[in-house]
Recover the amino acids of this structure.
């Protein structure tokens, strides 16, 4: 979230796709109402569709695709690169990078695949994005999985940054902390000869604090720096503009209009405050909260034996038994 979100985009204007004759393309492009090209990739086949929305802001679908592969067993999973990131169209006009455009893009994905109602899984910032979408289009939502979601109100972002700083101060020496501050700044990404290298250095240092074990030696396959050099170069700009567009946001009062079932998944050791996920679960009328022990922000990688069976149970129509209701007064 904020500057520590994650990353990216390759400039692509071809509508070439990879597909088997007689089947739908496994990847391609969608043209949004404001004529931005959005890249998508389909994994798996089946009569049931799940749309997986990546985190960031500033990442690409490659940040989650490989690690969420088990979800494609028996169903079609649609991933897409959010505007200005991954293989979607590069955008330098900051006025076109606000959350409203991201919500509109997600609806363009739904319409392109002719889905009257859509089941969504949102990872990190993606959890906030699919909630913004559900508020705007409650009649088009079937089910929601908020996967280690960003919090529903701005105030919790400060708490998150404080926790990240605390963990970094305990993990790293002063010279390493100086490198984090350097690699964090958007201007240094824009000037870098190799923005991908600075991206990988930044994320190796920062993402480590997101985990339960304080290490990335956990089998993590996601590529948080996927995309062309120019798309990676714009990461910090994309990230900052999305948060700027949200301002001092608070989605909780608006969640009551969404009647779809919602599963909120939170790693007990996440840098995001548990209270944020509790607000999600108490704000939605039909939601449950699953807290996974011995997991941080990467619960799908750190505890797959809990994460995937729980998500499968929910996608098939039931809440996992370990998920609990959260009362508003809690």
């Amino acid at each position: 979230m904020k500057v520590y979100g994650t990353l990216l985009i390759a400039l692509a204007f071809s509508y070439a796709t990879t597909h088997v004759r007689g089947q739908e393309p496994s990847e391609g492009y969608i043209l949004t109402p404001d004529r931005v090209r959005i890249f998508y990739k389909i994994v798996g086949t089946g009569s049931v569709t799940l749309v997986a929305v990546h985190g960031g802001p500033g990442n690409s679908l490659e940040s989650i695709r490989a690690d969420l592969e088990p979800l494609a067993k028996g169903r079609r999973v649609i991933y897409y690169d959010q505007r200005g990131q991954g293989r979607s169209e590069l955008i330098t006009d900051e006025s076109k990078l606000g959350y409203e455009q991201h919500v509109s893009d997600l609806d363009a994905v739904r319409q392109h695949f002719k889905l009257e109602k859509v089941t969504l899984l949102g990872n990190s910032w993606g959890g906030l994005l699919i909630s913004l979408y559900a508020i705007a289009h409650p009649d088009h939502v079937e089910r929601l999985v908020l996967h280690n979601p960003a919090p529903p109100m701005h105030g919790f972002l400060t708490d998150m940054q404080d926790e990240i700083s605390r963990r970094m101060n305990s993990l790293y020496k002063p010279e390493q902390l100086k490198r984090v501050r350097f690699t964090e700044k958007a201007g240094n990404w824009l000037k870098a000869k190799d923005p991908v290298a600075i991206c990988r250095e930044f994320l190796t240092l920062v993402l480590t604090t997101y985990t339960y074990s304080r290490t990335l030696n956990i089998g993590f396959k996601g590529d948080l720096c996927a995309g062309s050099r120019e798309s990676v170069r714009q990461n910090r700009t994309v990230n900052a503009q999305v948060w700027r567009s949200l301002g001092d946001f608070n989605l909780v009062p608006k969640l009551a209009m969404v009647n779809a079932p919602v599963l909120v998944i939170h790693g007990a050791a996440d840098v995001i405050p548990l209270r944020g996920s509790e607000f999600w679960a108490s704000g939605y009328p039909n939601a449950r909260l699953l807290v996974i022990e011995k997991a941080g922000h990467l619960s799908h990688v750190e505890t797959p034996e809990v994460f995937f069976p729980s998500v499968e149970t929910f996608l098939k129509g039931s809440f996992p038994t370990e998920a609990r209701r959260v009362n508003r007064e809690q």
Notes: DSSP finds eleven helices and eight strands in the chain.
